[in-house]
Amino acid sequence: MNRTTLHHPHPLALAAALAFSIGITVCAGNAHAQAKVTLRVADVYPIGHPVAESTAKSFMEQVKKATNGAVDFQYFPAEQLGKGKDLLTLTQTGVADIGLIVPSYISDKMPLSAVAELPGLYGSSCEGTMALLKLVRENGALAKSEFAPNGVRVLIAHAFAPFQLVSTKQFKSLAQVEGQKLRSLSAATDTTIRKLKGVPLRISAPEINESMSRGTIDGGLMGYPTVMSYDLARLVKTGTRGANFGGAIVTYAISETKFKSLPAEVQKALVDAGEAASRNGCDVADKAVGPLGDKLKAGGVHFLEISADEQKSLTGILESVAQEWADQLDQRGKPGGATLKEFRAALKDGAK
């Protein structure tokens, strides 16, 4: 049957997923037998999350259409095959054929990818996504430095629209953020939060709701889709609108071994659908920013009015984050400065 199968966390389903790295059935045609490939896709998103809907699901539909159903998928959302930090390993070993690789969850392995999380570099999801795609696809700077050495090939890239600050506390100026415990993603986000005199705490997306409910964190830097998808609107009292505190990036990748084992026409279908899904995902994300902000406001969230003086100070603070990030990596022997230059060049090319 030519359809995407949505799996729920049943022990038998999980056992089957662990036992096989690829499902192959033989479909008899009129004159020839055609091998049908079934690939398992795994991510961390709850059912209905906009990133999964606009990227992963769009990707699967396009691949099935391009291959006339010769490629099908089993989809495991919401960490059903493993935690977000483990999906790189699960993809490398074939437990998942295509996995959501979130560089910020494995910053020890992919520190340079945080370049696309730095504040103030791009103003929309599509600006960030298309620049990121240049760096993570074959022959790109990040493909060479981080993804290929880890044995995976990026099919889909997504940069979230610029993050806003949201908090369970009521405050009337950014100065009152001082001391608040804020959810962070990576070294880049850590630096941004410290510049605001907040306390960064690394929390994965599926853990945000519980952490905010219990007071482990007061809020964080995140996009409105995250606020809505993880049921945080009921907890958030104050937020910013139109600010640019950086963002987050995610990729869906396939192991290089698996990719090379597939027929050339399937490889092409995966690559082409990945680029189209990346474009679709960022377009959907950008169009959602305004309506989601309106919905949060209607629900009682107070949006902070940043004064002209605060905005001038904030701009200076955020501009310093990128260079500090690059310098710290350079000091560790990682090409932070070179990667920042590559990303800025990709953004400039995309703006032409």
SSE layout:
Blueprint: E1 5-6, H1 11-19, E2 23-28, E3 33-42, H2 50-66, E4 71-76, H3 87-92, E5 98-101, H4 125-136, H5 141-147, E6 152-159, E7 164-167, E8 181-184, H6 187-195, E9 199-202, H7 208-214, E10 219-222, H8 224-229, E11 238-239, E12 249-255, H9 256-261, H10 264-298, E13 302-303, H11 308-331, H12 336-351
Parallel strand pairs: 1-4, 3-4, 3-5, 8-9, 8-10, 11-13
Antiparallel strand pairs: 2-3, 5-12, 6-12, 7-10, 7-11
Please characterize this protein's 3D structure.
With 352 residues, the chain is α/β, with parallel strands linked by helices. The chain has two domains: 192 residues, Bacterial extracellular solute-binding protein, family 7 (D-Maltodextrin-Binding Protein, domain 2); 147 residues, 3-Layer(aba) Sandwich (D-Maltodextrin-Binding Protein, domain 2). Helices cover 44% and strands 18% of the residues. It contains twelve helices and 13 strands. The strands form two sheets. Strands 1, 2, 3, 4, 5, 6 and 12 form a seven-stranded mixed sheet that branches. Helix 2 links the parallel strand 3 and strand 4. The longest helix is centred in the C-terminal third of the chain and has 35 residues. It is globular. About 7% of the residues have low confidence.
Give the tags:
alpha/beta; D-Maltodextrin-Binding Protein, domain 2; six-stranded mixed sheet; 12 helices; about 45% helix; about 20% strand
